[in-house]
Each structure stands twice: as C-alpha cells, then as structure tokens.
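Convert to structure. Protein one:
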Amino acid sequence: MYYATKRNNTKTRVIGVAGVIVALGGSGYAIANGFGLIENKEKVETEVVIIEEVVEEEDEPPPPPPTDVDLPPPPPQVVLPEFVFETPPPQENAVQQVQQVRNPAPPPPPAPAAKPAPPPVTIARNPQPGRRFEKPDYPSASRRAGESGEVRVSMCVGADGRISDVKLVKSSGFPRLDEATLKGLPKTRLEPAVGTDGKPMAMCNPPYQMTLVWNLEEAR
C-alpha cells in the first residue's frame, strides 16, 4: 500500500509541475506578444504525450475454506416386513370343491380277474398213411435189377396232410430207390397230426420222420 501511494504522489507531482510550467509559459508568451516582442510565426503544434504507468493489480487472496458444519445424523431407516396375502379361491371353484367333498365319486369297480391262459396244444397223434396216401411207383430198373430196401426220410406235413420239404435221413443203398422216394412222396398226402384240442395241426418243427419200404414181392 505504501509503494502504491508513493507512486501516485510522484505522478501527481509531475503533472502539477508540468501544469505550472505550461501556465508560466503561457503567461510569458502573452506578455511578450502584448509588447510586440515576439513575432507571430506559424504555430507549431505540440503534442503532449502523457505516459501513464500501468498499475499492476494485485491478485485478490483466495476466499477462506468453508468451515465444516456438523450436520445431524440421518434418521434410522425403517424396514417394513413383507406381508404375503393369500388370495381366496374364486367362489365357483369353492362351490365345486364343496360339491366334490359332499358327493365323492364312487370307486371304480374292481378289474375282472384275468382268465388263465389255456394250456399249450401239443401233438396227440402223429401223421400216418390213410386213404389219401399212395405209395410211389417202383422204379422199373430197380425191379429188373432186384433192388429192394428201406428209405428213412424227414418231411413237413401240413394241417391238410400235404407233404413238403422231404429230406433223406437213411439211404436204402440204392440211389434209384432213394430218388424215387424223394420225388414221389410230395405228390401224395398223409392224414395230418391231431392236437390235444382234437383239431388237425401241422407238424414241421420238429419234422415228421417216415420209413418207406421197397419190397419186390409187393411190386409184382
């Protein structure tokens, strides 16, 4: 503050001295001009330059920090309990439930006892030659050669007595008699097997076995 005041006083003094000098000069010029001592000459414009010193502004001090104010503690938070409200059932469902309770459905009748499975049907009588059976023709070459013997075969006999799938089990020792047996039996029929239920049944598994006798005495 002292330095700024001192500078302001110096400036004021300089301005005051300059003003006094200008005033004295003007007075002297007026007096001299009045006495004719000074010739009129072209006026010279004089510029007076006033140099002003820029006063540096001092930065204002920062404001003081805010004073901490003790605030009252926040009120305690109240936690409300959760309430679960059970919604009553509709009136229509309630009536139905009451009716179901009052009039319960009768229990279902007991299931009928399962019938015992019938016993399996087994073969009561094997197939056998009957009125529909015809013995194969005796080969003429075997008769001339005097061939005879027994041929054992296996076959499938259907419920209608038809013969199929004839296979050789034991040979007679003569190929012509064996071949005549295998080719002749499928052309004839047997009486079918009879089951325990009294009905004809097929006999294929196991197959039926049969022995065919070739006798020269019978062929004559």
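Protein two, convert as well:
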Amino acid sequence: MKSTKLARFALVGLTAFFAHAPLTSAAGGQRPTPTLNPPPPSFVSCKAVGNGTICMGDLTFHEANVDTGITCGSGPSAFNPVDQSFADVHVSFYYDQAGNLTHTTKRIKWYSNQWVNPRTGTAVPYQQHDNYTVVLAIPGDLSTATTTYTGENIFPPAHSAAIFLNVGRVVYGSDGTIEFRAGPQSFLDVFVDGDLSLLVPLCAALV
C-alpha cells in the first residue's frame, strides 16, 4: 500500500534490505571487518571503527503509477489515485565488535511527488521526508527490532493550505504494532483507525 510509505519502509523495508548479497570487507587500508550478521546489502560500503563496524550507502529510485490503496468516489465516477514519486535514500548499519547488527538509520527525501487521478490526469503535489531509526534489542536478531519514525507528508506543498497532513513521530514494536504516536497522523487515522472522512478534501482536489 503506497500511501503507507512510513510503515512500508519500517519493518518490512529493513528485512528487504538484507536480501541483497553481503558486503563484509572494509575498503583498502582498513582492518578487515568480521562476518556481519545479518550481512548488509550490496550497495553499501563498510569500515571497521573502534566499537565495531559501520556500513553506509545511498540509492535513488522512482515509483511510477503505484496504487495508493484508496478509492475516491463511488459508482462509475470512482477512481483509484496513483502515486508518482522519486526518492533519495541514505542508510547506515551499525554492528558491534562481534559483527552483530545493533541499529540502523534511514533517511528518505522524496521529490517530484504527486498523486494523480488516472481517469482525468488531475494531479495534487505533496512534500515528504522520512527518518527511521531501528534498534535491535538482541544484536543480530531482526525479530527484536523497534522502529521509530519521524517525518512529514503534506498535501499540497507548504506554500498552500494543507488538505492532508501527516507529521510527527511513530514507534513500531517488534511485531509491527504501534506503541506510540504523536502529531497529526492522517495516514494512520485513515488506514489504522478507519477515518475515511480525512480523504474527502484530497479526493475532491483530484477530481
């Protein structure tokens, strides 16, 4: 569900990163890093530091016409908005001296973002950036991860009156349940609490 970017890049996103081929050796001149658990994704570079190993990397991706998971209107005039966006991602993985992952950070900057009515081509731009910190209660064990999200998702950009607002902080437990939430969290209000009324202004702007 594209409209829940924050959840998608939390627990599920963390696990998906480790599906890539491992990269467990430091750059030239560095002392070798230990075997890392779990191995980091292939697009990062790792180096040994005083208290373990740190791996960092960047990637850019494009999402075109991704289903937002919502329906606007009803009957013959109903439509499902699609998301069009680009993102720059910076990730850091921190391992202890035994080579076990202790925590990660992820910074995502979205740009050229918009929701589009595929029937009419009407688009509503938005701005969004996401920050995630994932801490493992047991080093190396992804099932013990707690994820803290901070960021914002605003429709439309800040120079206009917002018609949909998602700003604040959310903490996800190791099982994916929400342990804490603060600030206006419209996506959670819609997809977790079922308050579909919040979508009315956004859907109206897409007609």
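The two ends are 21 Å apart (CA to CA). DSSP finds three helices and nine strands in the chain.
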